[in-house]
Write a structure and sequence with these properties.
The complex is a heterodimer of chains A (500) and B (385).
Chain A: H1 6-22, E1 27-31, E2 35-39, H2 41-57, H3 62-81, H4 86-121, H5 128-140, H6 155-170, H7 180-188, H8 201-209, H9 215-247, H10 256-288, H11 305-311, H12 314-325, H13 335-352, H14 357-383, H15 386-405, H16 409-419, H17 429-449, H18 452-463, H19 465-488
Antiparallel strand pairs in A: 1-2
Helix pairs in contact in A: 2-7, 3-4, 3-6, 3-7, 4-6, 7-8, 9-10, 9-17, 9-19, 10-15, 10-16, 10-17, 12-13, 13-14, 14-15, 15-16, 18-19
Chain B: H1 11-33, E1 39-40, E2 45-46, H2 55-59, H3 62-73, H4 78-91, E3 96-97, E4 100-102, E5 107-109, H5 116-132, E6 137-142, H6 145-148, H7 162-172, E7 177-179, H8 183-188, H9 204-218, E8 228-237, H10 240-245, E9 253-260, E10 266-272, E11 280-282, E12 307-312, E13 317-323, H11 331-334, E14 338-344, H12 353-356, E15 364-370, H13 371-376
Parallel strand pairs in B: 6-7, 6-15, 13-14, 13-15
Antiparallel strand pairs in B: 1-2, 3-4, 4-5, 8-9, 10-11, 10-12, 12-14
Classes of the chains: A mainly alpha (500), B alpha/beta (385).
Chain lengths: 500, 385
């Protein structure tokens, strides 16, 4: 299920939340004289609804999530039980990490690996996963894909989250979660299960066990959720249509302006779509009593690439820093190792976004840009006027999106050429039409991706506290009305993270 | 002593919660309790039925997809929500919606650049067909309103050049095919009511003009316009373009029937809906029951059917028409010159044409399509088999 659907908004969400709000955290069921059974009622509800939410989009692969959760939970309990035996603790960690990486390898990367092998050696090896699928289909007729391995939704998010638990437990940064319901509700927490943010166990450890829900938190959550919904449905979907059209055109005859308008549309689409999803997740988390970490902070205002990645998909960057970059030695082991570590982290970051060469190249592209900044260009950027360094960063990001979304390196190259005039003209009638019929949405998107909007709001909030407070419910109603009318007739409402 | 501190509830926060949940619950309850319609008449589409739960439907996800469609199709106030969006967007200056351009006085289709490679296949099939049979074959590709009123489109709006497309097709049709060009006819009568404002079809007037223009090539003397009594049979017609936009700012259309002053002498219209079944016999070319539903254009020979036979007492030749729905209001004029007219819709034919009708029994064949459907149609290739 996706948040931006009528099914979620009008049926799943109110049903779950109303039960949730009136349920206590724990229910004590008296058993005999002195005993009592404590049921973690809210966590149980989160677990059950999370499974339903996930299974709605992944009725078969929900099993994989369950297995992964079970193994990580058991690994955690074992580490706790054999607290003094470092050997067993290490084995537990290795099992957990290998299992999670293994799931990714099988379901996300196996096709890519076999395709690469087959191209390199001109061989014709069938992916064993496909063979297994065929066998299962023969027996049970589940209709599993017999051609390509289908990626389970959100697998890259929940495997990373589960790993954060076992790794941190191994490093003794957190306490064990003894309750199976508690741990499973962390993994299946529906706000963040399909598209992040990547909530580390550490972030919500105390809230899993005890949390408060009150009117002011819920209303804060509603405001955040509505903001995210508006970003996704009103901005991302509307500007995304432009890119969908441009992307499908013939790049060899495309005018430079069309190419630029197209890739700018994607630049805004992916930002508002992704940050909108994150806002919705954070807002839903608030309604349930959780505080999720921030995932986006006006990334297109960054003055360097390093800064961009501190503001874009923050939880992913944090994850790779904590669990890959720093364990590899970070920047403390000399220049050569630092360079190596940066390239590894950025290659992996690229690969995380999809099993394809263009994603790896996209990741390494950022790795190289960051290395260039580290060796001195960063100092120059700091001295340049903000407008110049911001423009530099923005342009580099836009070029990055070409690599990211044109599917193959060949096509990306074609598209780059079109951006620089290889299509023959600067602006043709197509570009003029795209511009004149969509100018409003571009202007709104530019405005909304700066800090200007937020600054205006906080200025207003300070000046007219009362009016501002009442403007919130009014804005929520307007957003809900607008988004509903766009969702009822939603010919274009894509889910962009199916490759992640 | 424990002091219980009770936080005062913030009123705006409470209002936020009430309006948000109030709206969600109100709309979901209304969606559940309001009566359901099987047919979304305004949108000319069947509504999704409530899905049946089964393990198979869950595992292959058809259950979830159907449920989401069901909720969307039956969402309370669906038409109002969609219209609201159209009103908002048009008032913000948007002139395009769901592949339809909103012009000042009409809606027209946004037609993408034609695929000439695909057109080549259709052309080859027609050529092959015409060479194979011994009777004269005529082809008429009618431009649609998007071409005739192209000058009213928003500036620089992408719009396929139908004139170029039609002349490409005509130039590549072989010598065994006679082409009938009605482009100029339509263009020079563009101030007349020749296309519906809210639908993708031409009006009866538009069809009459083409019928009159085709007479010379096909060998009949067209009946002059003043011999017809025009009946404004269906008022308040809103067509397929309306369904896609639900834009209310365009004047509704009128369906006209052209009756000959001294009667049309049609004896029967036989409609074959499925092969092997007996055709339904009717006494008139005008299916008046459709005048009271939304899709009023279907009052011309009904909705698209595989085979329709029109027999009249007017002596003359027999004509086979391979067609799309543009032929439905065109064929009635031809009944004055042919004793027997058979309309065949290739989209619904999956056996060789020779098994559907006895081709050699006819005196002429007319292939009649509008340019938009000819660009995308792939069924006409079956003619070449």
């Amino acid at each position: 299920m996706v948040f931006s659907s009528l099914t979620f908004l009008y049926f799943f969400l109110p049903a779950v939340l109303i039960v949730y709000i009136f349920l206590p955290n724990k229910i004590n069921v008296p058993l005999g004289k002195e005993k009592a059974l404590t049921i973690p009622a809210r966590n149980l509800l989160i677990l059950l609804t999370g499974f339903f939410f996930y299974a709605w989009g992944e009725p078969f692969y929900v099993v994989i999530m369950l297995i992964s959760t079970l193994i990580d939970y058991t690994a955690g309990r074992m580490m706790y039980k054999y607290d003094n035996d470092q050997k067993i603790r290490t084995i537990c960690l290795i099992i957990s990490v290998c299992m999670n990486i293994g799931l990714l390898a099988v379901f996300k990367y196996s096709d890519f690996i076999f395709d690469t092998i087959n191209t390199l050696f001109h061989s014709d090896i069938t992916n064993p996963v496909i063979l297994v699928n065929r066998k299962i289909n023969d027996i049970y007729n589940f209709g599993l894909s017999e051609d390509r391995v289908r990626l389970p939704i959100g697998i890259s998010f929940y495997t990373f989250q589960s790993m954060s638990y076992t790794i941190d437990l191994y490093l003794r940064k957190i306490n064990v979660q003894k309750s199976f319901i508690g741990f499973t509700s962390y993994v299946t927490l529906f706000p963040q299960i399909v598209a992040g943010p990547i909530v580390r166990y550490e972030d919500v450890a105390s809230e899993i066990n005890d949390r408060k829900v009150n009117i002011s938190k819920i209303s804060e959550g509603i405001a955040k959720f509505s903001k995210g919904l508006a970003k996704k449905v009103l901005l991302a979907n509307n500007i995304g249509i432009i890119w969908t059209e441009v992307k499908a055109m013939d790049y060899s005859t495309m005018s430079a302006s069309t190419a630029w308008l197209g890739i700018l549309a994607f630049t805004f689409q992916i930002y508002f779509d992704f940050s909108g999803y994150s806002d919705m997740a954070v807002g839903l988390g608030k309604m349930l009593g959780f505080n999720f970490p921030k995932n986006f902070d006006h990334p297109y205002m960054s003055k360097s690439i390093s800064e961009f990645w501190r503001r874009w998909h923050i939880t992913l960057g944090t994850w790779f820093r904590e669990y890959v970059y720093i364990p590899l030695g970070g920047n403390r082991k000399g220049t050569a190792k630092t360079l190596r570590n940066l390239l590894i982290v950025w290659g992996l970051t690229g690969l995380w976004h999809g099993a394809n060469w263009n994603f790896i190249i996209w990741g390494l592209y950022y790795g190289i840009l960051i290395i260039i900044e580290r060796v001195g260009f960063g100092k120059i950027l700091e001295k340049l006027p903000s407008a110049v360094s911001m423009l530099y960063t923005f342009l580099m990001t836009v070029f990055g999106w070409v690599l990211f979304d044109t599917d193959t390196i060949g096509k990306a190259w074609q598209f780059f050429k079109a951006m620089f005039g290889a299509g023959g003209s600067f602006a043709d009638s197509m570009a003029k039409y795209i511009f004149s019929s969509n100018i409003l949405i571009y202007v709104i998107c530019i405005f909304a991706s700066t800090t200007l909007f937020g600054n205006l709001m906080s200025f207003w909030k300070k000046k007219k506290k009362r009016v501002y407070a009442y403007a919130v419910p009014a804005a929520v109603v307007c957003i809900m009305l607008l988004c509903t009318s766009y969702l009822v007739d939603s010919s274009y409402n894509p889910f962009l993270y199916f490759r992640f | 002593m424990k002091i219980r501190k009770r936080k005062r509830i913030n009123i705006p926060d409470l209002i936020t919660c009430i309006v948000f949940f109030g709206m969600l619950i109100f709309m979901s309850v209304m969606t559940i309790v309001l009566p359901k319609q099987d047919f979304l008449e305004m949108e000319n589409n069947y509504a999704e039925k409530f899905p049946r739960l089964s393990a198979k439907a869950v595992f292959n996800m058809t259950y979830m997809n159907k449920m989401e469609n069901y909720i969307s199709d039956h969402f309370a106030g669906r038409i109002g929500w969609i219209k609201g969006r159209t009103v908002l967007e048009t008032s913000l200056g948007k002139r395009e919606r769901n592949g339809i351009y909103i012009l000042s006085g009409r809606l027209v289709e946004k037609i993408p650049e034609p695929d000439y490679a695909s057109a080549d296949k259709a052309i080859a099939a027609i050529n092959k067909f015409a060479e194979k049979i011994d009777i004269p074959v005529f082809t008429m590709i009618v431009p649609t309103s998007a071409e005739i009123y192209a000058d009213e489109l928003p500036e620089n709006a992408p719009n396929a050049d139908q004139k170029e497309f039609i002349s490409y097709v005509y130039q590549n049709l072989g010598r065994s095919v006679n082409t009938i060009d009605v482009y100029q006819t339509m263009m020079s009568n563009r101030d007349d009511y020749i296309y519906y404002r809210t639908d993708h079809h031409w009006t009866t007037k538009g069809a009459y003009l083409a019928y009159a223009a085709a007479g010379k090539k096909m060998g009949y003397a067209p009946v002059p316009l003043d011999l017809f009594d025009i009946e404004h049979a269906g008022r308040g017609f809103i067509g397929t373009f309306y369904s896609k936009t639900l834009y209310d700012g365009i004047e509704k259309d009128t369906i006209d029937f052209y009756h000959l002053t001294d009667g049309d002498r049609v004896t029967e219209v036989a409609v074959t809906a499925n092969f092997g079944e007996e055709p339904t016999i009717r006494k008139s070319m005008y299916f008046r029951e459709y005048l009271s539903v939304k899709d009023k254009y279907a009052s011309f020979l009904g909705t698209n059917m595989p085979v329709v036979d029109i027999r009249s007492e007017n002596g003359g030749n027999k004509l086979l028409i391979i067609k799309d729905s543009y032929a439905h209001c065109y064929a009635p004029f031809l009944t004055q010159h042919y004793s027997d007219i058979t309309l065949v819709d290739m989209r619904y034919i999956n056996i060789p044409l020779g098994q559907v009708v006895d081709i050699e029994d006819y005196d002429q064949v007319l292939i009649l399509y509008n340019a938009s459907s000819f660009m995308t149609d792939t069924d006409i290739r079956k003619l070449g088999y």
